Amino acid sequence: MKGLTKLTAVSLAVAAALPIMANAEVLISEYVEGSSNNKAIELYNNSDVAIDLTGYKLVRYKDGDSASLDMVELTDTIAAKSVKVILHPSAAITLPASTDSMTGNLYFNGGDAVGLLKDGVLVDVVGEIPTPAGWGFDTTFQRKLDSLTASTTYDASQWVTLDKDTFSGLGSLDAAVTPEPSTFTCNGATLTNIYDIQGAGDSSPLIASGSYESANEVTVKGIVTSRSDSLYKGFFIQDMQGDNSPYTSDGIFVFLNEAAPDTIQPGTELCVQGKVNEYYGSTQINLKDEQKFEVGALGEVPVASAFYVADGETLTQALERVEGMKVVLDAGSEMKITRTFSYDYDGRRNNMVLSHKAPLMKPTQVFEPNSADSIALAKANTINQLFVESDFKAKDGEVPYFPDFNAEAGYIRVGDQLTNLEGVIGYSYNAYRILPTNLISAGDFIRVNDRTDAPTVADMGDIRVASFNVLNFFNDVVGGDANPSGSNRGALIEEEMVLQRTKIVNALVAMNADVVGLMEIANNGFGELSAIQNLVDALNAELTDDQAYRFVEIEDADKYEDKFIGSDAITVGMLYRPARITLDGAAKVIATPEQHAAEGAQTRDKDGVVEQSPSYDKFQRHSLVQTFSINDEKLTIVVNHLKSKGSGCIEDWAEFNENGEPADLQGKCNSFRVSAAKVLGESLKDVEGDVLVIGDLNAYGKEDPVAVLTDYDASTTDHVIRTASWTTLNGKVYEREGSVIDKGYGLINLNTQAHGADTYSYSYNGELGNLDHALANESLAAKLVGIDDWHINSVESNLFEYGSKYTGELVKTESPFSASDHDPVIIALSYPAPVTPVTPTPEPVQDSDGGSLGYFALMLLGALGLRRRS
């Protein structure tokens, strides 16, 4: 343990015995990534002489990058067998008076490895390169005394992990203190049953109302079912007999705040004594301050109990019944994947989420925002989640409990039912979590809606139109032209870009669409080095001449800086097959509103204090319009990509939502997207012929922008829809104050018409919904043959996408699956070729005298019903 002001005799002996690497006498001995600016790096000189630090510097490897960024150039010297502490200038950290320290620009975060360089060469590092996401968030790492040797390869076993804002060891180094052997014994103690501690309610009956800890200690015996050396820091024990009641749990977690001794293994009989805690909703026995336990014999691990949700209870209620127990998810558990294995921003680690019976739907996909049904579904979703965790943070590209995870046979899809997973039930971060105790295989996933090689409508109708968000397809790494912002949001190396393009091409070939609207393609013009030309060239290389595509190009007068569609780094695009469909006139651009609000444009009252708004300059991508001719009919297609839900507009600031999700669950900048929907509606209301609005509207099925374009009617609902304030359009003031929408523009949601409200093309935070839409006027809706959200992306793990930054050694494939994060939407339409009427030439008909009746006489007889039968 650290904390003394000088080296002990033991640590001196240990340090002196360690080998010293050439040019690496100085090493990192402690890493502190605490709250706010509480950041520190401690260096140790393991040599016998003072060392001049000239030429040494601290660097960081930001969020998984392999290239370093400079932080602090070191100066002065560091004494022999001594430490030097580098602190962030604003750190609230107090060091012992005698500490050798300096301040420096330490701006690493929990996703960064920190390296020590000597004359530009890496000599020591804390954290893997590239670093797993969030690996060091809110954590202190102290180097063990038997590992005081610099190394360019990070080995987690050489470091001790401590809690957030642990500063007590900074400025000194000492040997770990071996604890005295426990003399605690259960002999003569009165035992309390685990199920009596757990009780049948949400908290332990041994804890008084309003308190979080029992008044007295309890003594408990049980069998260890699982250790948790990282996630929970303790172990789970379970009563071998139980009370045979389904309402009380037979298991409980014992908290140590550190890894349990090696003598405590699954199957070990154990007696513990401590107070019962309700720690943020988790019932546990707390041994943190005084470790009172007695280790018994090692025997059999308790058999897992089959988990089930009874009629009339929620998943949360069912999990509360088995909190702390070892359970197995069998076929009768009906647990479905609702978020595949991916990064959890709350837990700062990769994990997976299950729900009972069906994946979760976004409330505003199926119900009007702020409606009673929407609010009820949001609440139901929060209590219908079970996180599947691993004790230690997973390595990049690996699922710890599923070693056969791979892109071809070992995939995981939203909607799959998980079976045969055993684990203990814990609770943290306001959610129940299962910590697996066994490994599963691909056969343990029951595929409910498995992969398909092509969409169901790929060969339907006379023509097909597709909408496809291609997840930042940039060609910068192969010399592509620049976009207006100069930034590259896509592939970072050529290998990634080629893989991304191949996956997109394979998806487009399988779709077999005659027109394709694209979103998130680099906005770098239409030249030979443009992203859209790069994609078309690769696509046509896989097709025959009559299947080949061209892209739609806008006229020079509509181009921003004579080259681009708007000023964003990404844009919309359109491909079409000239052998199947014909351009009718030039493409057009529908400019969308911008929001420009000066500082102080709006005020809000916060606890009686009036605050003025910061300045806001918000933009959204323009829409692309092209009319086509097919079989003498006109079809106008509009491709859109409205403002994202992530960053806020001035309306969010006014409602105190700048740092959180708005209460109506529509995301940030909702009114701004409504403004764009209003402009679209006005621009299209007088278009002749068929109209199809496609693309990523960044709005779910029942949200305001979709409602404005379709069937909203203010007279039938209490839900008020408003546009944004401070908007401009084409450089002129559009709306100084937001206006109320009274009536929608009457387009028809083709997905809803064909399949009902619960369709989806996107998954976010474990909830499914449609951001990608196909909206048609009445004449086009009558031509609908079929529509398909082809689920190649939304339900797949994003670890199979083209990016390699966080996927380690995971093998990627060229299949269409995980080509993007949005599913393509394919619409099959009926445009039959016109039939030319054929006028029949009648044969002469003999009259009773053997003469021929004329044609008009024949018609007259037929009309009178007098035509003779043959």
UniProtKB/TrEMBL annotation:
<dbReference type="InterPro" id="IPR036415">
    <property type="entry name" value="Lamin_tail_dom_sf"/>
</dbReference>
<feature type="signal peptide">
    <location>
        <begin position="1"/>
        <end position="24"/>
    </location>
</feature>
<feature type="domain" description="LTD">
    <location>
        <begin position="9"/>
        <end position="152"/>
    </location>
</feature>
<dbReference type="Pfam" id="PF00932">
    <property type="entry name" value="LTD"/>
</dbReference>
<protein>
    <submittedName>
        <fullName>Predicted extracellular nuclease</fullName>
    </submittedName>
</protein>
<dbReference type="InterPro" id="IPR020008">
    <property type="entry name" value="GlyGly_CTERM"/>
</dbReference>
<keyword id="KW-0732">Signal</keyword>
<dbReference type="InterPro" id="IPR047971">
    <property type="entry name" value="ExeM-like"/>
</dbReference>
<dbReference type="InterPro" id="IPR001322">
    <property type="entry name" value="Lamin_tail_dom"/>
</dbReference>
<dbReference type="InterPro" id="IPR036691">
    <property type="entry name" value="Endo/exonu/phosph_ase_sf"/>
</dbReference>
